[in-house]
Amino acid sequence: MSKSTVRAAAVQIAPDLTSRAGTVERVLNAISEACDKGAELIVFPETFVPYYPYFSFVLPPMQQGAEHLRLYDEAVTVPSAETRAVADAARKRGAVIVLGVTERDHGSLYNTQLIFDADGSLALKRRKITPTYHERMIWGQGDGAGLRVVDTAVGRMGALACWEHYNPLARYALMAQHEEIHASHFPGSLVGPIFGEQIEVTMRHHALEAGCFVVNATGWLTEDQIAQIHPDPALQRGLRDGCMTCIITPEGRHVVPPLTSGEGILIGDLDMRLITKRKRMMDSVGHYARPELLRLIHDARPAHPRETANPDPAPVDAAPQPDEVQDA
């Protein structure tokens, strides 16, 4: 831990539901605004680029085809012009940026988290290990290689998306790697008020259990966007509220009041000394652990659809020369 204080920003804004380029522009504008306020770490909502697939929550499967295909067209490849633009912004402003994207990898989409370090390098690309409920028709599954804590300019960082936080072993995998700052994000504008309440409980609990800071960002939808997603007022109720953008200390407290409605950027200073203060009392992967009784087995290998047991055969040599034939 090198920095004693880190200024963090959690961004709650609406995407552009019509284009990837429009959402990227909003990301870059928010980076500038947060950095102008001194932010060294900026966290954006879940799959913010191009947008979270809200349609999958309110449309039956037979009616999702057109929107799912449109998401394929708007999805992000890594690397791409979009990721390079964010990397350039991170480098120019000297900020660590955590961005959620829907990533396209050939014929599949994934819920992907990207951590760009302050020098513009991509410190981590990970995929949500299990999409939730309606999301399983949209995204594929990630693997254990993404459950990794990385060193950044602001400290040791780990990241999980949405209900991955209800998988205690996924959280423990990051805790055991001694994360200092946990980046988290949820879609926001989903389910209703109970979703925001659950997010707050979950974020505060992880901060306490891990002895780390949590910076969580949720998204926002305008009334026009909600009407665009579905015209039925009854179903539109499922596309409101559910926001809880917050910054939590290792003692489970809000650094600043959370943002639960509207657009905005939370700015909070992380006093990194609080990590040791918390862990002196309870280090769940150190002096409070009992690894001889309970421990995690984590398969951190990337999952590939094709593995080769032997290298490809060497190319066949050209026909032997006359001297070689005579020697034989």
Automatic annotation (TrEMBL):
- State the organism named in the record: Paracoccus nototheniae
Compositional bias, Low complexity, is annotated for: 315-328
Which InterPro entries does this one have? C-N_Hydrolase (IPR003010), C-N_Hydrolase_sf (IPR036526), Nitrilase (IPR023919), Nitrilase/CN_hydratase_CS (IPR000132), Nitrilases_CHs (IPR044149)
Q: Which residues form the signal peptide?
A: none
| Family (UniProt) | Belongs to the carbon-nitrogen hydrolase superfamily. Nitrilase family.
Q: Which Pfam families does the protein's record reference?
A: CN_hydrolase
State what protein this is by name.
Nit6803 family nitrilase
Looking up CDD domains in the UniProt record yields:
nitrilases_CHs
Q: Where is this region: Disordered?
A: 301-328
Q: Entry's Gene3D superfamilies?
A: Carbon-nitrogen hydrolase
Location of the CN hydrolase domain: 6-272
From the broadest rank down, the organism's phylogenetic lineage runs: Bacteria, Pseudomonadati, Pseudomonadota, Alphaproteobacteria, Rhodobacterales
